[in-house]
Amino acid sequence: GILEQVRRKVSKEQNTQVQLADGPVELKMRVFVANSVEAKAVGDYITSHPYQVPAPFVVLTRQLHMAVTYDSSCINPSHACVADRLRKQIKTHAVKVLRECIAEKSCNLNVSMLRGHMGALAPSEKIEPFVDSRGVHIDGQRSQKYIVLPAKNKTARDRVPTSNPRPTPRSPARP
Q: Cα–Cα–Cα angle for 95, 20, 116, nearest 5°?
C-alpha cells in the first residue's frame, strides 16, 4: 500500500540524535521537496489514516521554506553538480534547524510525540511556531518567511568563468 511505497521510494534518511528533557532521542529524518512524489505519498497516507496511533512516521513541519544566498561571481548554480551540492546543503541545514527547534525546551516536545503516540501531526503543531520565529521575509514578501542559508563555495568548478581568465602560475619543470 501507500506506507510500503513511502518506505521504499523515500529519499535517504538522516540518522540524528536530539536532546529532550526526557533525555537523548535517536531520530531518522527525511526531508522532502514540498511537491515531490514522496511528500504527496506521505500526505496521502496521513490523510487516509488520520487516527492511527502510533503513527508510522511523524511530520515535524508541514513546510519549511528555505532560501539560499550566494555570490554569483563565485558560484554558478546552472551547473548540475553545483545545483546538486546546493540542494544537499539546504537539506542538511533544514535538518539542523529542525534539530535545534526540537531541542528547544519551550517547544515542549517529548519522546511520545516524536514516536507517533499522539498522531502524525502532533510534533508539527509544536515545532512550526519555532521555525516561523527563525524565518525572515525576502524581497518585501510579507506573506512568507524563509530560513536563509549562505551557500558554501567548495570547488573551483563552482566559479563563474571570467572573460579575462588569469593564468595560474606553474611550477618549474623538474628533470
A: 70
What is the value of pTM for the model shown? 0.75
CA separation for the pair 102, 26 (Å, rounded): 12
In terms of Cα–Cα distance, which of 68, 90, 70 is closest to 14?
90
**Grid coordinates in use for 18?**
536530539
CA dihedral 87, 93, 98, 100 (to 10 degrees): 180
Helices 37-48, 2-9: crossing angle, 10 deg rounding:
150
Higher-pLDDT residue of 87 and 140 is 87
Nearest-angstrom CA–CA distance, 49 and 57? 12
